[in-house]
Records
---
Amino acid sequence: MEESIRRLQQEIVEFEIQAQADLEAFRLKYTVRKGLIAALFGQLKSVDPADKPRIGQLLNQLKQTADAKLTEAEERLASTESSSSSNKGIDLTLPGRRYFTGSEHPVQKVLGEMKQIFSAMGFGIATGPELELDSYNFDMLNFPPDHPARDMQDTFFVTSGNPGSDVLLRTHTSPVQVRVMLDQKPPIRVICPGKVYRNEAISSRSYCVFHQLEGLYIDKKVSFADLKATIYSFAKQMFGTDVKLRFRPSFFPFTEPSAEVDVTCYLCGGKGCKVCKKSGWLEIMGCGMVHPNVMRNCGIDPEEWSGYAFGMGVDRTVLLRYKIDDIRLLFENDLRMLRQFGA
Ligand code: DAH
């Protein structure tokens, strides 16, 4: 008996508990009610009464050794487990993750200002598709078939073959005028901002995609004087109160009469500089009175209604405003550029 106790004591001391599985094996083998220690206690009653106190004491020591070992192992495993799970996959020496705040694109900033000025004057906002029908981009706007005016705008055709139903990338925002007139009854007062596309040689000054903002006002007795007053008010708010305007006669198939509008160069104040090519003027838009044919094409009676329209490029204003010297920078989405326009 004494010998068995000593052997078990030795075994218990040498038992290695390194993982939960070892712990469980140890417990099942030695300390549970049907384990080896309990079995030895069971044999105590058949021990010679004279030896009982000594054997009993040895058994108690054995049990204490086993219990102590179990407790120690439980604590040790619990602590290594919790620290290893909280550290799992985390390298505390790594630098923190940086979050970048998005910012408004400079084109959107300028467009936003333009929209605000016109909405304060009572203009709503209309949009149309960038993939447009040939008929809306040209025919309905009074471009006769095969008329050289179509060559003013180098077109990206998407399909070709059926004149009028061809699909193209719109070359200007004017087809949105058509869509609005087909859709709404006058009075109409909208601006139509958006992207337009032209198959032009790409350079720092021109790109195959750019932005325009179109305006359309149709009501009773709208005159060219109304158009001038609106453009004046816009230009003062956009380019400064000292700005002067110049209306030059021009031609667009969809307006009659037509004009191009220049503002005094807001970089040199009209004295003449590199940007305005020493002229003192910068062209900002085309405009005119909506052609009666366009109204008729859209089901509006030109005897009853009249209106004006204008269309301006947005990108050049962005370039001048922020002193950006290459239009392509506006379309490359280079974060090094865009981050400079953060809030
Ligand atoms: N659509 C013309 C262009 O892209 C600009 C334009 C001129 C628009 C006169 C108009 C307008 O509405 O009346 O060159």
Note: Residues 52-87 form the longest helix (36 residues).
---
Amino acid sequence: MRILTGIQPTNVLHIGNLFGAITPAVELQKENDLSMMIADYHAITVAHDPKALHESILLIAGAYLASGINPTKTVLFQQSQISAHTELAWILQSVAYMGETKRMTQFKEKSGDKQDSVSVGLFTYPILMASDILLYDTQIVPVGHDQKQHVELARDLAQRFNKTYGNIFVVPEPAIRKQGARLKSLTEPEKKMSKSAPSAKSYISLLDDKDIIYKKIMSAVTDSERLITLEDRREGLFNLLTIFSLTTGRQADEIANEYAEQGMKVLKESLCEAVFAYLDPIQTKMRELLNNPAELKQIIQNGSQTAKMQADAKLKQVKKAIGVTL
Ligand code: ADP
Ligand code: TRP
């Protein structure tokens, strides 16, 4: 199977990104053709600091590799190095309907009441994402729940294009895990964990040290019921049990039973240890990689060369199909 996923380089990566997108891809790496993209052209759709963007590109590459992506097996590449992405996005903008893009929940959320003053790029962003996916004959796209609608748009555009111009694109499907695809904010558990949240207390960053992890988990919002139980309606607690399960590989209900009588504080203390034990080797590896940016850059360049060959070949077929090739 051909699999592709991507993350935007913004200066924070949190455990939602890790469990929603990175670890599911790492698990699929062995048996499939995997591509891991650094979605840097998506990151410029909102105001950004060029120096911070530059650093974040390396940070994402470091996170991919430290989490188990093997660059000799998987194509790790940078979106902006391959002009076919933006070129196909232009072509697909002529296939997509205004109504379709207007419906995207993420655009509505990110633009809020400022729809007239956000960038046009923020609005057309899902179309660039569709070209990321369609250029590589991607069958499966592992993402967190919030990206499902964007992958569905990529499906619709592929089907419409194929119907109009011939069978050029593979129709992709989102792969959304049952657990970990929608980790919640630690401070407002009714919302998703997000790097654009106003408070850093709401997420656990991949590079948070032990003290910070401890502070954030101990102050995570839960409820005042005495027993520990695994129930959807107890959103804060449910989220903590989910994180406990993801970082230990144990079943969430089994963890809830074990801590049933011990109370929230004891559960949170054990969770801190579990999260730290899980992140510690990833953090050590990430720091090691980030200390050697030349090597990281080389890996990204090599992967991007491979990706470019695949993408250019696909774009050639598309241009022929729409009639512009002489
Ligand atoms: P954010 O929403 O924090 O800005 P991105 O939009 O860059 O994160 O998301 C990168 C990847 O991480 C996507 O696949 C997205 O679905 C996934 N993801 C983001 N937030 C979460 C979350 N809270 N739980 C699970 N997956 C998430
Ligand atoms: N839009 C995705 C996000 O914000 C990142 C992304 C860009 C992506 N292109 C992609 C994810 C292609 C999967 C496939 O998280």
Note: Residues 293-322 form the longest helix (30 residues).
